[in-house]
C-alpha cells in the first residue's frame, strides 16, 4: 500500500524505513523537530536515508513542545540522566504524549498525500517507562486514525513483537550502515555511551552479535536492567 | 478535576469553556493557529474569554498544516464553498485529522501542567462530513490519551449528546455574549452569512429561539439540510 514512515534517524526507525521500502510504496518520510537536545544530530541521518532512497523527506517543526512541555529530553529541561534505559530515573526524559502527537500529525499528512498506511518503529522493548509506546495506547491511536480519516488510515507496527536486539539483526540483514543513525539523547558531537539510549544501543548490538560501528565518548561496562 | 479546554473562539468552544468553569478547575485554554482563513478572527475571541476568566491562554502555532495539508479551509486552499454545513461540498473544508492533532497536542500540554482532563466541545451535529468528530474516533482518542499518559488523562465531551441548537441555548443560559465568538470560515471583516458554518450558526440561533447578535454581510433564506 501507499505508506509514509516516521523516520527520526535513530536505529529503529531507519531499520523500519528500509523494511518498509521492501513492503510498501513509501511516499514520504517524516521527522519532527520538537526541541530535543538530539534532534539536530538525528534528523540529518533521517534525511540522508530518505534522499538515498529517493523518498520525499519533510521535517515538521514543533517549537511549542520545547516552550510548553516538561521533559529533560528538551533544551528547556534539565540534564540527561545516565543509567539503564528501563530505570525509573529515565522518566525525566519522557516527552508527554510525544508519540500521540507525532502519529496524529503524520496521520493528517498521510491523508493529504493519499497514503493508506503509516509506519512506526515501536517495538516490544520500548514499553518499560513510556506509556505512549505500549500496545493499549497504540490500539487506541490505531482506532482513532482509522475512524478519523476518509482513507481509514492504518497504523502499521512491523516491529511490535521484536525487541531492539532483533531490530539490530534485522537492520544488519538489510545492509544498513548503522554509523549513519543517531541515538544519544545528549546530542553531543559523538554518542556519550552512558545515557539510557546509548546503553540500550550498545546492549542491542552486543546481544545481537552485530558489530557496533558507533563512536562513543566512553564505554564503561554496561549497567544491568532493573529488576522488573 | 484540573482540566484544560480546547478554545477556538467559536460559539461551541466558548460555551464549553464557560460550562467547564462551573464544573472543573480550568488551568489553561488552548487555541491552535493552523493557517485557516478564520484563525485570525476567532483566536482573539478565545483570548478575550480566557483573559476575562483569569485563565491562562496559549496559542499553539501549527504552520506545517498550511504548508503540507490539503483543505480549502486553509490559506493554501481554494475558495470556501457556500451552502448547508452538512452538504457533501463542505468536505473540501475538512482539514485531515485536525481534531486528532489538536487533541494529541492538548493531551501532552495537559500532562505538562498536571491536569487530569481535557474538554472538547464536540457535539452530535458535528458528524455529518467530519470523520474526526464522530464517536468511534473520539473513543479511540480517549483510549490513546488515557493509556498514553501517566496521569491517565480523560477526554471530556460535555456536549456530545447535544446539537448546536442546544449549545446556543446553554450558552444563553450561561450569559455568554455571542457577539464575541466567531464562526465564518471565510474570515472576512464580518461573518459572510452564506458559508456552511455561517448557515449552521444562523440556523442554531433561529431554532434555539436565542437572539442572534452576529453582523452578517448577507442573510438570504437558510438552505435546507440535505436528505440524510
TrEMBL record, chains A, B:
<comment type="function">
    <text>Catalyzes the ATP-dependent conversion of 7-carboxy-7-deazaguanine (CDG) to 7-cyano-7-deazaguanine (preQ(0)).</text>
</comment>
<keyword id="KW-0862">Zinc</keyword>
<feature type="binding site">
    <location>
        <position position="195"/>
    </location>
    <ligand>
        <name>Zn(2+)</name>
    </ligand>
</feature>
<keyword id="KW-0671">Queuosine biosynthesis</keyword>
<keyword id="KW-0067">ATP-binding</keyword>
<protein>
    <recommendedName>
        <fullName>7-cyano-7-deazaguanine synthase</fullName>
        <ecNumber>6.3.4.20</ecNumber>
    </recommendedName>
</protein>
<comment type="similarity">
    <text>Belongs to the QueC family.</text>
</comment>
<feature type="binding site">
    <location>
        <position position="198"/>
    </location>
    <ligand>
        <name>Zn(2+)</name>
    </ligand>
</feature>
<dbReference type="InterPro" id="IPR014729">
    <property type="entry name" value="Rossmann-like_a/b/a_fold"/>
</dbReference>
<keyword id="KW-0479">Metal-binding</keyword>
<feature type="binding site">
    <location>
        <position position="192"/>
    </location>
    <ligand>
        <name>Zn(2+)</name>
    </ligand>
</feature>
<comment type="pathway">
    <text>Purine metabolism; 7-cyano-7-deazaguanine biosynthesis.</text>
</comment>
<dbReference type="GO" id="GO:0016879">
    <property type="term" value="F:ligase activity, forming carbon-nitrogen bonds"/>
</dbReference>
<keyword id="KW-0547">Nucleotide-binding</keyword>
<dbReference type="InterPro" id="IPR018317">
    <property type="entry name" value="QueC"/>
</dbReference>
<dbReference type="GO" id="GO:0008270">
    <property type="term" value="F:zinc ion binding"/>
</dbReference>
<feature type="binding site">
    <location>
        <position position="184"/>
    </location>
    <ligand>
        <name>Zn(2+)</name>
    </ligand>
</feature>
<keyword id="KW-0436">Ligase</keyword>
<dbReference type="GO" id="GO:0005524">
    <property type="term" value="F:ATP binding"/>
</dbReference>
<dbReference type="Pfam" id="PF06508">
    <property type="entry name" value="QueC"/>
</dbReference>
<feature type="binding site">
    <location>
        <begin position="7"/>
        <end position="17"/>
    </location>
    <ligand>
        <name>ATP</name>
    </ligand>
</feature>
<dbReference type="GO" id="GO:0008616">
    <property type="term" value="P:tRNA queuosine(34) biosynthetic process"/>
</dbReference>
